[in-house]
Amino acid sequence: MSLEVVALVPSRGPLRAMRGALITAGRPFLASAGLLEPYRARVSVELDRQLRPVAASDWVSVDLLAPHFAALDTLPMTPQARMALGATVGESNWGPTLRTVARLAGALGASPWLGIGRSPKFFERNLQGGGLRVSRRDRCVALVEMLDCGAWAAASDHFVYTTLGSWLAGVAAFAEPNRDADAIPLKRSPGRIAFELSWSERTRR
Fold first, then answer.
1. Chain center to CA of 192
2. Largest CB tally within 10 Å, which of 109, 151, 182, 188?
């Protein structure tokens, strides 16, 4: 049975670049965990030179992203910790907007579906290339598919779990999401990274 698609960004070819905000927002988390310097010790001098001055509005190309995430993958972090880092990135970049949406919706019964409907705007603002498809699997379950992110992204635990965590931050503006990394269905291949988001029926007020 086909699922209802509720948000879509048709693939624009392989992922080519990412906004610097998705990198810089995670640095305080790494620093507080004592992992920022170990990360820098794992990247080349040239890569460190190029990434240190990156600003939130800059585009970071995939030739820098791939070794950046490969270095992050070697850090001693659990999937849960990577999701927590991703949640700080999501909270920084779209949390305030989605909380405002939830507050304005108020008595109308705001739910995560309202925020998910805005996800194409966030996607196109922060990523060049790739695609997005979000489908309704159940009343409180969404299937998120990130398309054409590339083999490097699919192979990166850090990319996958921080991406998942950033989506959970969006859900959390409306309802309490399932944050258990071991209980979240997840599939990945070079052409598709897919995971389910689920949440309690009681929405935040």
1. 14
2. 188
Sign of dihedral through CA atoms 96, 101, 104, 108? Answer: negative
Q: pTM of the predicted model, to two decimals? A: 0.93
Output the pLDDT for position 94.
82
* C-beta atoms surrounding 180 within 10 Å: 11
Asked if 169 contacts 87 with a C-beta cutoff of 8 angstroms, the reply is: yes
Q: What share of the chain is helix, strand, coil (3-state, %, to 5)?
A: 50, 25, 25
Task: Please write the tens of the pLDDT for every residue from 103-145.
Answer: 777 655 678 999 999 999 999 999 999 999 999 999 999 999 9
For residue 25, give both structure tokens: 């927002």
Q: How far apart are the first and last CA of the chain?
A: 34
Rg of the chain (C-alpha set): 17
